[in-house]
UniProtKB/TrEMBL annotation:
Keywords: Endoplasmic reticulum, Membrane, Monooxygenase, Oxidoreductase. Belongs to the cytochrome P450 family. InterPro entries: Cyt_P450 (IPR001128), Cyt_P450_sf (IPR036396), Cytochrome_P450_Monoox (IPR050196). It comes from Panthera leo (Lion). This is Uncharacterized protein. One of its GO terms (cellular component) is endoplasmic reticulum membrane. The keyword Membrane applies. GO terms for biological process: lipid metabolic process. It is found in: Endoplasmic reticulum membrane. One of its GO terms (molecular function) is oxidoreductase activity, acting on paired donors, with incorporation or reduction of molecular oxygen, reduced flavin or flavoprotein as one donor, and incorporation of one atom of oxygen.
Length: 327
């Protein structure tokens, strides 16, 4: 039985031709993509041409600038050198305009143009803020928050007077986080206790920001009794919530959670899943965010004694001879 040599080379020739066609198509797509990226970069360069910035690499952007020093120090140099705003090239075809002038921000935020949510998109489904914004707003009225000033002051006095007597440097973020945790637990959840006083020193070190965790993270779950909300017994939680609501209303009180629970009484029910999302919102905004803001304020006052003295004089002028604020 004889086999023609030509019949063996035909399949090889067809495969080789197919590979050549695929290679040409791949090369054409690659060139087309490169042209698109080039045109997109030229469009970005034209869009930010009126804003000065440090020299950037055509591919790596400003990555090398941030490798030389800390991110915050590099940004501070840019703020001092370039007025109002500065383009920050993340990559060859990706740039963000860093705006730090208040007049610029007023114009940008005041416009109705669609704005990129950035990393907020990762948090939005978790905190469920937008959906229940109108329900929560009345709970933060000034008249409702005024009585809690005394509780906030008590949370500060629990342990901070001891720090003052030490007359030494204090890592404030850890202790401020515990203080804000105490405050939000007392004001929003009627939890009586002090995580500042009850927390051992070894746990404090494990939960500090320097240790890689968030200060007060373990105490949040312990205080709320919600270590992973799905495992919570929903029937007992719902029963206890309604009992607490009726008891508070009978006593003439109106805690922050009533605005949500009253909506439930009117027939517009809020599922337990959404209610847990509101608990997350309270804890996130009332604990972590507030702790960061207070820590930065204390740091700024400590590094600028003249402004600290002005704030002290203003507080004294408001308090007068009294020891606390009266409305």
């Amino acid at each position: 039985m004889s086999v023609s040599l030509l019949s063996l080379t035909r399949p090889l020739g067809s495969v080789s031709g197919l590979l050549q066609v695929v290679s040409l198509l791949g090369l054409a797509l690659l060139l087309l993509k490169a042209a698109q990226l080039y045109l997109h970069r030229q469009w970005l360069l034209k869009a930010v041409q009126h804003f000065l910035s440090p020299p950037s690499h055509w591919l790596f952007g400003h990555i090398q600038e941030f490798q030389k020093e800390e991110d915050l120090q590099c940004l501070r140099k840019w703020v001092d050198k370039f007025p109002c705003a500065c383009p920050h090239w993340l990559w060859g075809t990706e740039v963000e305009l860093v705006v730090y002038d208040p007049d610029y921000m007023k114009v940008i935020l005041g416009r109705s143009d669609p704005k990129s949510h950035g990393f907020y998109r990762l948090l939005a489904p978790w905190i469920s803020w937008l959906k229940h914004r109108r329900i929560l707003t009345p709970a933060f009225h000034y008249d409702i928050l005024k009585p809690y000033v005394g509780l906030m002051a008590d949370s500060v006095h629990d342990k901070w007077e001891d720090f003052i007597r030490q007359n030494s440097y204090v890592e404030i973020f850890e202790h401020v986080s515990l203080m804000t945790l105490d405050t939000i637990m007392k004001c929003a959840f009627s939890y009586q206790g002090s995580h500042q006083a009850d927390r051992p020193s070894d746990q404090a070190e494990e939960g500090s920001a320097a240790g890689g965790g968030r200060a007060g993270e373990g105490q949040e779950q312990e205080a709320l009794g919600l270590p992973g909300h799905p495992l919570l017994c929903q029937s007992e939680c719902e029963q206890g919530r309604h009992e607490a609501l009726h008891t508070s209303l009978e006593e003439g009180g109106k805690p922050c959670c009533v605005s949500m629970s009253s909506q439930m009484e009117d027939g517009s029910s809020m599922p337990d899943k959404d209610l847990c999302a509101e608990v997350d919102t309270f804890m996130f905004e009332g604990h972590d965010t507030t702790a960061s803001g207070i820590s930065w304020i204390l740091y700024a006052l400590a590094t600028h004694p003249e402004h600290q003295q002005q704030c002290h004089e203003e507080v004294q002028s408001l308090l007068g001879d009294g020891a606390s604020i009266t409305w």
